[in-house]
Amino acid sequence: MAEFHKADIEKLIDGVLPWPATQDMLKSAKDTNRFDKYVEIMQERVSFDEPILLPLTPMLFIVAKGGERVVQCRCGHDFGDYRVNWKLSALIRVRDDEESISEVYKGREMPDPSWIQIREYICGGCGAQLEVEAVPRGCPPDFDFLPDLDTFYREWLGRPLPDEAECVDRTLERIGEWSR
Amino acid sequence: MADLSLKDQIAANREAFEKTGSLFGLERLKRKETDPGTYEAVWHILSNLCNAAWATGCKVSSSPIAAEGGDALWGLHTPTGEAICISRGISAHAGLLSDMIKNFIDIGYEEYPGFKQGDIFENNDPHYGGIHSPDFDMCMPLFYEGELVAWASCVSHVADAGSVTPGSIGFMNPDCYSDGIAISMERVGEHDRFYPWYELRIRSRTRTPDFVMGDARGRLAGCITIRDRLHDVIEKYGLDFFKEASQEFVEDSRRYAVARVKTQTVPGRIRKSQFKDLAMKGKPVLLAKQDVDCMFNLPMELTINADASVDLSLAGASGTVPFGENISPTALKSGLMMGYSHIIGFDMFNSGPISAWNIEMPPDGSWANPYPVDYQAASGVAWAPAVTWVSSLYEVFGRLFQMRGFIEEMAAGSGTIMTAEFSGINQTGMYLTGLTLEQASQGSPARGFADGENSAWCIYTPEADFGNAEISELYYPILFLGRNVAPDSGGFGQFRGGLGHTAVWMVYNTPGLEYQCGDAGMRSKIVGNHGMYGAYPAVPDRPGYGHDTNVKELIDAQKPLIHERGGPENPAVAMAIEARDVQDNMVAPFVTPEPLQDYDIIVHPIAGAEAMGDPIARDPASVVKDLNEGWTTERVASEIYGVVAGKANGSYVADGAKTEKQRQAIRKERLEGAISFKDWWEQEREKVQARENMDPAVIRMWAGSMSLAPKYAEELRRFWNLPDDFTFGS
Q: How deeply is B476 buried, as exposed, middle or buried, from its count of CB atoms within 10 A (0-12, 13-18, 19+)?
């Protein structure tokens, strides 16, 4: 079984690992402890101390915080319960007219705003652009991933998390609160 | 098992899988365990045997698509149809070929007309599992000492299948009756020869019969190559070994894919929206019902279960369209299998990996399952929505690999796929129609550690190759004036998608040529895909052409010609040449309204792919490299990437301090310009309800999606807090 050094994984993340070494990683059998090494690396790179349970994206992490599982940006900005689509707690900028779209796309490369809008999800803490969706008006934001964290830790990693939580999508409950 | 009919064997296999969770009930891989060396050797022999068929068949076929582009595939199957291994080539068809063999068995052909050595069976009919008429699927039963021990299969993409418009990308087809020649689950030959009436039909019903028959002979040659070489394999290793090992290869591949899911992903539910436009209103069409713009909803919901099995849903898929862009569920599954083979099941590519999938039947009457509601739906280029949908699979698994730290496996999705076909008299006086190969070499998706590769990837085939320009010039009355990397065509991100390219053609030596700018997954009104992790999406496809030009005068005067796409606000076709009819911003797809003539110019863009990551996180050195290569512009460098660069000694150099300041300014502008999601949601739901600035195509799409999938409709209403009876109408 292959064993890759943490330093090489860091270089890979930063896009500076030489191509032959990258190819070696691609072609070799995977290291079984990669997840732990990756979480360790990311934990060192974030600006908070709460333990990372899952790197949701390179910028967003599900962390254990005061008995809850919440989504946090690298900068520490808190997006709340991981079972609610984090986008509902983000800042958003929507390009849905020619003027705003032309700030990104020019001339014949402009999409038609009556067919598609460009939604930019921004971290309220650090201003990072976390996701960009190109969707027609009426499309709910993608809830990109709702992990079954307890199954993952209990059955796939063999080390159950304390305080198991029900894995249900609570996004519409939040919408229901807004609607009242 | 051998004394059971093939139909009964299929039923027994299904029962054994349900009972044991292992294909063919193989709880142990005995041949692999007892003789791993021979097991591995025979796998490679069988794999090479398929590749030998590919090499032979493509050369025999002689059509530019097969001979130059390798746009074909051969496979070896178990007696019950499972693919054991396949050749290089257009791997999207492996599932179709398996299902075709199973279908021949299922509808009773074993009893009548029966299967015997030398029989040739074919299908290209979407109603029976085909993808679209130009893709001719063939299979031959292979016997050893009187026993059917395997099948050889093949698909090749013919230049013309006799659909209502010339060529093989039949987006304009209004119904299945215009899709062209139908080979509907037929025995088309015996004793290794096609029936004479098969060839007569090809000759009267396709526009390029010599090439179509060449492809048929190529398919046959490849299948016979498989049969002959398989005979030698069985002679050497024994029939029992072959039969047992071939089943083990399929089950082994299933186990590999399941293990990869379990060790490299995370259980849970993934959702990814995807859309595709087809703007046809106001363009020349065939029937009145086609004077309409369409938008496809291509949603993907994927659930990874505790046992690493995968559930897949297309709930929310929009309705059928009055064009050739509807696909049967069987063909869609084959496309999915191809995508999965790129991402997960690539160690031994066969039918194994997808057996761990539970695919919910797409809504009746959707583009992905048309026939229960619209039996006449056309499928002239059924791949168009399918490959766009499959693109989500790349991004979805890219996200999953990231979560487990397997950065080296991460990929974003594809961009768009626009084709070019010609029809007319070529320079030798011969009528010709067919597909160029430009679209088979796009930018590849951004990776977790690097940009995608330029012009080096194609979603529907690992055989990414746009072929030699000189070969295209040999067949078609065109000359390449340019084939170059297109700046800023791979989205904008920390890692950008590989860039696409532009083909610039001059029409030459023809009394008239039709240019069909076709749709095999293009997006022209909308951007190509989303942006992953905060990147901006790739640009839409916008081709151009100039008709009745001054290019001959420019050549005679030895003045500069047109060689590239030009900038988005200064398209070269409008700046570098003069023409009576200049189109510099066409919304694809379309067919030129009158024949192009000598010295006319076509500017045909090929897309880059999806980018990944916040653009202002891109390494300034990468931006400067792109500037120096001519792959991005100063505006994009400064305004999108926040990199301020100036020229020194003829090359761009980044100014570190100014770059940091510019990036801080972009962050500040974002924070000041954005609003809370809740504030936006409150405004937006009013606009949704009022259908404000929503094109009729978008409104029709939502209406279709909601009427075909009530649960999807309910969730959409609840998200926007709309009345229980809200619909978008039609």
A: buried
Chain B environment of A156 (Cβ under 8 Å):
262, 266-267
Answer left, alpha or beta for residue B108, where phi above 0 means left and psi between -120 and 50 means alpha: left
Do B542 and A131 count as a contact with CB atoms less than 8 A apart?
Answer: no
Burial B691-706 (b: 16+ CB within 10 A, else e): beebbebbbbbbbbbb
Mean of all residue pLDDT scores within chain B: 96
Q: Judge contact between A171 and A85, C-beta under 8 A.
A: yes
The count of other CB atoms within 10 Å of the CB of residue B448 is: 25
The reply to whether omega before B113 is within 30° of 0 (cis) is yes
Give B344→chain A minimum CA distance, Å: 13
Report the 10 Å Cβ neighbour count for B299: 22
Name the strand (E) or helix (H) holding B583.
strand B579-583
CA separation for the pair B590, B45 (Å, rounded): 46
DSSP string, chain A: -----HHHHHHHHTT-S-HHHHHHHHHSPPPTTHHHHHHHHHHHHSS--SPEEEESSSSEEEEEETTEEEEEETT--EEEETTS-GGGGSEEEEE-SHHHHTTTS-GGGPPPTTT-EEEEEE-TTT--EEEEEEE-TTPPPP--EEE-HHHIIIIISS-PPSS-------HHHHHHHHH-
Q: Token digits for B220? A: 């046959």
pLDDT in tens, B618-657: 999 999 999 999 999 999 999 999 999 999 999 999 999 9
> How far apart are the C-alpha atoms of B301 and B303, rounded to whole Å?
7
Chain B residues whose beta carbon lies within 8 Å of the beta carbon of residue A179 = 721
Q: Name residue, tokens 């010039």.
A: B473
Conformational region of residue B106, where left means phi above 0, alpha means psi within -120 to 50, and beta covers everything else: alpha
Q: Residue B666's beta-bridge partner residues?
A: none
H-type alpha helices, B62-112: 94-106
Confidence band for B2, pLDDT divided at 50, 70 and 90 = low
Q: Residue B648: in which H helix or E strand, if any?
A: strand B645-648
Query: Two tokens at B313?
Result: 């849903």
Nearest CA in chain B to A14: B449
Query: How many other C-beta atoms lie within 10 A of the C-beta of residue A166?
Result: 7
**Which DSSP symbol is given to B178?**
G
User: Cβ B449–A22 below 8 Å, yes or no?
Assistant: yes
Non-local CB neighbours of B590 within 8 Å, separated by 6+ positions: B283, B516, B517
DSSP class of residue B720? Answer: T
pLDDT band at B344 (very low <50, low <70, confident <90, very high): confident
Concatenating the DSSP letter of every residue in B264-333 gives HS--EEEEE--EEEEE-TTS--SSGGGSSEEEEE--EEEEE-TTS-EEEE-TT--B--SSS----HHHHH
Q: How far apart are CA B73 and CA B337, in angstroms?
A: 15
Report whether B605 contacts B486 (CB < 8 A): yes
So what's the pLDDT on residue B67? 83
Model confidence pLDDT, tens digit, residues B42-87: 999 999 999 999 999 999 997 888 888 888 999 999 999 999 999 9
Is it true that the peptide bond before B560 is cis, omega within 30 degrees of 0? no
Any B CB within 8 A of A25 CB: yes
Could you give the CA distance from residue A127 to residue B495 in angstroms, rounded to a whole number? 19
CB A130 within 8 A of CB A120: no
**What mean pLDDT is predicted for residues A152-174?**
96
Q: Distance from CA of residue B405 to its chain's centroid?
A: 28
CB A73 within 8 A of CB A130: yes
pLDDT surpasses 90 at B338? no
In this predicted structure, the answer to whether residue A165 has a pLDDT above a threshold of 70 is yes
Record: contact B684-A114, CB cut-off 8 A: no
Closest CA to A105 of B489, B293, B320, B147: B489
Is the ipTM reported for this complex over the cut 0.95? Answer: yes
